[in-house]
Amino acid sequence: MDSPAKQLIAVGIGASAGALESFKEFFSVMSLESGMAFVLVQHLAPYYPSIMDKLLSNSTFMTVKKIEDKMPIKANHVYIIPPNKFLKLKYGLLRLESLDPPFVVRRTIDVFFRSLAEDKEEKAIGIILSGAGTDGIEGCRVIKERDGLVIAQDPKTAPFKWMPENLISSGLADYVLPIDKMPEVLFQHTLNIKTSNNKIKREITEEYTALNFIFAQLKEKTKDDFSSYKKGPLLRRIHRRMEKSKVRALSEYGQVLVKNSSELVQLHKDFMIGTTCFFRNPEAFEALAQKMRSQITSELHFRVWVVGCSTGEEAYSIAILLRENHAFQNTDIQIFATDIDEEALTIARQGTYSKKIEEQISPERLAKFFDKVGDNYCVKPDLRKGLIFTRHNLISDIPFCKLDLIICRNLLFYLEPEKQKEIIKLFHFSVKPKGYLFLGMSERMESDHFFEMVSGKKYLLKRI
Question: Which of 35, 145, 286, 409 would suit a FRET pair with 184, their CA atoms being 20 to 30 Å apart?
Fold first, then answer.
């Protein structure tokens, strides 16, 4: 059984302009015994001392604390980010990192929400209140990916409507609510979380037929087979849709999908939620770059397969590493980037991204590999050359072969263990002898019969 700390539901609340009044309203309607921990992430002036903790103490009976490094989160506590800091949650501890230099574009909400999702998974809740800009959207995407809950303040009730409006337009918000309606949803979600694990185990065994009927409906209409995916995360997403459809039984929800094609489309969209960015987990990309400089030798041709490429950022990141490597200057590089989400592939093929990538890519790389078009960045033709974006189902379609490098990051995480083993065998078949496999940070290799770790890096493996 998980410890109380592991079971604790953590709520991240992001806001910028108008934050004080929104925070005060929120905590004036939240009761003392919520059983949740609340972490407030606000855009603050770098050197302006915050007195938010003192101001909020008058609006709630919960304990309000200004965050110090390595502070553990506890139920019925409110934690406030200090100025000029990035905040992350790791193993239930709040970790502070300095912003250096202090006047860079900040994505403090994204940074915290991403860590919140990775640490708490389905027990993470992200709320966006009043403010300007798009900070928080990518973090909310990770929360949704890990089956957490996302709430946007109703823009009509926000002093500054742009942050919640941007979240709503992204399609990530589970609920759009005025602040006084949020506690009811939070309490109901808490109740659902407490009973969900036992409920999911029961449904997997007792309602096997109803669940398979839902998967069959999705496969018939979309051609995508989700039967090999882990049932727990998918059921949590189904439950979320059932709440909105006001049905309680899986069998009843299956009939809703038969009669309501728009609901089936929305469920499929919820299943497809993914997150990516340029050079995700920079330390892993640096380890790959070092290995490419020292041991991955190029020939006349170099073939790469990026599995689950989503909107293309990872494929372009790999292309940048190869273009920067002098050993590949005269090499014919082919990068096959695949996904089952045609909407994501359309974005990848266009190669146009918002200015938020300024936080992910160095100015030197932006100047070399991208053209500035208005407020956006467009991939230069030279970087786009050799990339092929195509729809491909890893589970059912014929794999690519004679590959030098396979990139599969955070996709195996969602598959059942037996299916993971099958995919690893498939990768072993697809990659050349002494070829490489680059995995996500959260994935683990259980077998050593096909690949071996490179320099102790669990995410970088070499074919045996």
Answer: 145
Is the preceding peptide bond at 101 cis, omega within 30 degrees of 0?
yes
Identity (one letter) of the amino acid at 65? K
Residue 364: helix, strand or coil by DSSP?
Answer: helix
Beta strands 352-353 and 332-339, pairing class? unpaired
For residues 170 and 176, the answer to whether their CB atoms sit within 8 Å is no
- What pLDDT is stored for residue 291 in this prediction? 83
Distance (Å, rounded) from C-alpha 443 to C-alpha 449? 17
DSSP state for residue 410 in the 8-state scheme: S
For residue 71, give the 3-state DSSP assignment: strand
| 231: three-class secondary structure by DSSP | helix
Q: Report the CATH architecture of 282-463.
A: 3-Layer(aba) Sandwich (3.40)
State the pLDDT confidence band at 244, using cuts at 50, 70 and 90: confident
The helix/strand/coil state of 74 is: coil
- Look up residue 337 and give its two tokens: 């980037």
Query: What mean pLDDT is predicted for residues 81-100?
Result: 88
What SS3 class is residue 235?
helix
User: CB under 8 Å to 418, separation ≥6 — which residues?
Assistant: none
* Domain spans in the chain, listed from the N-terminal domain onward: 6-178, 207-271, 282-463
Place of tokens 């979240």: 167
Phi, psi of 33 (to 5 degrees): -95, 60
6-178 and 282-463: identical CATH topology: yes
Does residue 295 register a pLDDT over 80? no
Model confidence at 347, pLDDT cuts 50, 70, 90, reads very high
Closest CA to 155 of 30, 31, 22, 245: 22
DSSP 3-state percent helix, strand, coil across the chain (nearest 5): 45, 25, 30
Task: Find the length of the chain.
Answer: 464
Distance CA(433)–CA(402), nearest Å, equals: 9
| 364-383 tens-digit pLDDT | 999 999 999 998 999 999 99
Looking at CATH, the fold of the domain delimited by 6-178 is given as Rossmann fold (3.40.50)
Question: Which pLDDT score, from 0 to 100, does residue 125 have?
Answer: 97
The beta-strand segments (E) located in 340-420 are 352-353, 370-373, 376-379, 387-391, 403-408
Phi, psi of 281 (to 5 degrees): 60, 75
The pTM of this model reads 0.72
The whole-number pLDDT of residue 319 equals 95
Assigned token pair, 188 = 């109901």
Residue 415 C-alpha from the chain's centroid: 16
Both tokens assigned to 197? 């694990």
| pLDDT band, very low/low/confident/very high, at 103 (cuts 50, 70, 90) | very low
